[in-house]
Amino acid sequence: QIRYSIPEELTRGAFVGNIAKDLGTDVAKLAAANLQVLSDSDSQYFSVNVNTGVIMVSERIDREQLCGQNPRCFLHLKLAIENPVEFYRIEVEILDINDNPPEFPSDEVSLRIYELASLGARFPIQPAQDPDVGTNTLQTYHLSANDNFNLNVKARTDGGKFPELVLERALDREFRAFHYLVLTAEDGGSPPQSSKIRITIQVLDANDNHPVFDRPSYGARLVENSPLGTLVVKLNATDVDEGPNGDIRYSLSSHNSAALRQIFAIDEQTGEIRVQGNLDFEEATVYEIEVEAKDMGSPTMEEHCSVVVEITDVNDNAPEVILTSFSSTLSEDALPGTVVAVIHVRDRDSGEQGKVLCHVSPDLPFQLRKDYEHQYSLLTSTRLDREHVAYYNVTVSASDLGHPPLSRHTILPITLIDVNDNAPQFEQASYEVLVAENNPVGSVLVTVSAADPDSEQNSRLSYSILRAGGTDPGLDPTRYLSIHPTNGQVAAKFPFDYEQTTYLQFHVEVSDGGSPALRNRTLVHVFVVDQNDNAPRVHFPRAGEDSATQFRISPSIVPPALITKVVAIDADSGRNAWLSYHLVEATDPGLFSVALRSGEVRITRALQETDASAHELLVVVRDAGEPPLSTAVTLVVLVEEKGPEALQGSEARAADGGGLPTITLYLIVSLVLISTV
User: The Cadherin domain covers which part of the protein (predicted)?
Assistant: First the structure.
């Protein structure tokens, strides 16, 4: 805590103190730490130059307006710096200067005094008021020279001074009917200031006894907030005169302030003082009531007394919670101990009833730290997770120590700001896709989907295709596939051909929009399903589209001799490659047969002389696909007389074909291997 003293009414920009020097801190550090000066009052009377560390006056300071008649006047400031957050309490005492002279309510006052007034009788004069304090306030009165009156200054417990004229020498109306005096009020300033009031005294002839109270002063004690009409005290005054001169009326003296007159009232007949306004201990702890009793004589005679009323405090003020600093948003990665708010609490009650304790719910990840009297800091107590809880309503409860205690609850809404602390997660670790070959271009093969529990930009996902490890380097997935960057739809750029590609695997990577971005991958397996899109192809015998292959046999061939074998291959697989051979047309259907699975063409009976010398056979090779595809081949069998070596089955064909057995063997092995696969 740092304390300064300055006089009131300084000009704007006047020097108050060097905070950098008093804290022992470098000025550059204060500027970098975002130095701020916070005032407890509504007005900003001071400002700080962050470049020099000097606190200056920024508004006119009138001590009398701020603190009234309080002997000491303070303005409290808070000095706040950041990185780390620190607070210093600054107390500036405002010193009084003699800028106000004492002033009487009026320039002239008239008194009517009976000539038989007793020596020593006192006649109060409306006092002068000086808003200054200490030595600068009203100090003394001076009465002009005269033969009959002396001046007595009555001092009250609150420091007020009230002048009274004291009759020192008996009056004689016949000798002098009017007295003219001058009363001067002077303060203790340097130089002193003063004011004057003219007093005109008219000496009357009549009522020579004034009322007398049974005691010079009265005391009472009330609790604050006493009900209206509560009896404070009953006064009693007597006057030994008879008739109207002894008939007494009570009233509140003109010395009492207008505010006091609104709180208390007196019955002029009975002298009972009762409460007619609100009693608030926080506004005043003691009231001093000046009461006068007047008789009904002519002239009227009066007597004065004081009633001191002490107010007892009750717990009627709930604590107040004031947010000195508060941020309603907080990053979810804030470390435990991060300051969220600085809270100032106060209670206008006194004693134990004015002491305040604060707390927050232990179920929340926040705690209160007491910095010093009446100030707390709200801190984070544990790690925060926006994906678990994104919003907090932190209730700060402030309770006093009264009986019963009063409390006030303030809700602080805190929203967590997302940080990119969660990587996207795919719904599946891997995907398996079956796609029929010859698929349309642009058709969606699969939709991969990932989720990110972060929010806004941190949860905006983008998909891309990567080559999977172990994949054939020649099979670049980006050549065949594309992926929509936002919805994860994987589409084909080209139709798949099972006969070229049966399987493809690749990685799909998803990344979020955070900084830095977080990523994850999933593996996609694409299996191409074969379609019956290839017709069987005849490898043997080879012939043109419009020609037939000729074979020669001897008329004496013995059934079931092998004439030839039709060999065909289907590029498809599975059922689509299962081939069957059919004799569709023949010159003599009963003379030849074709094996269903092997394609062997054999003679079924012995040739007769009546049989034709040339036979044309149409053999169709058909696969088992849906729908089936087929290929036809035309064979011409010629019956000719040749040498025995050329007409004996496969040997004759070998001689005619030039290396035919080797080709036939190759085709048979290929057919077996394909069928096995």
Answer: 5-104, 105-213, 214-321, 322-426, 427-538, 545-663
Whole-angstrom Cα distance, residue 361 to residue 379?
13
Decide if pLDDT at 42 tops 90.
Answer: no
- pLDDT, residue 607, reads 86
Give phi and psi for 480, each to the nearest 5.
Answer: -100, -25
% of the chain residues with pLDDT over 90: 31
Burial class (CB in 10 A: 0-12, 13-18, 19+), 371: middle
DSSP assignment string, 552-583: EE-TTPPTT-EEEE-EEE-SS-GGGG-EEEEE
Count, residues in the chain: 677
Q: Binning pLDDT at 50, 70 and 90, where does residue 546 land?
A: low
Instruction: Specify whether the CB–CB gap between 240 and 148 falls below 8 A.
Output: no
What is the pLDDT at residue 298?
A: 78
**Residue 321: which of 269, 233, 399, 261 has the closest Cα?**
399
The sign of the CA dihedral 267, 272, 276, 279 is positive
**pLDDT tens, position by position, 75-132:** 888 877 777 777 778 888 888 787 778 888 898 999 998 878 889 999 999 888 877 7
Directed axis angle between helix 649-657 and helix 660-676, to 10°?
110
What is the CATH architecture assignment of 2-95?
Answer: Sandwich (2.60)
Instruction: Sketch the domain layout of the chain as residue ranges.
Output: 2-95, 108-204, 212-312, 320-417, 425-529, 537-639
